[in-house]
Amino acid sequence: MLVTPEHPMGQIVKFAATSRLRIDSSTARFLDGQQGEPLVSMWTRPSPGDEADVDTSVLFALMCGDVSAPVAMNLGRFGWAPTVQLTAYLRRVPAPGWLRVIAESSVLGNTWFEEDHTVVDSTGQVVVQSRQLAMMPR
Description:
alpha+beta
């Protein structure tokens, strides 16, 4: 599913206006009003001019370490999920092309949750890994 600035997900992920973003709707169950696993996967790519600039493509990949709507939304927990702590590791410069982003959580509490992002480039190499501790939406 293509995310545009007008799409409900585009209202959450603001850089949908300046990049290309596709959500795997089989994982983002909240978009259909359903619940599912705390997992959201997507593909994203910077604009062609940004992708050609190595510095910008690296910063874009790092930003993808926190690009997903909170995975708690798949559990029916909507609202602001403020980040308490975020650690991101840049493993390599991304190859040109689409980046696969997988956001998931295995630790969800009543007031907080952890969310891990893995960003893989078009060659199948891990580019960014991140872990976030966030407050659970009320």
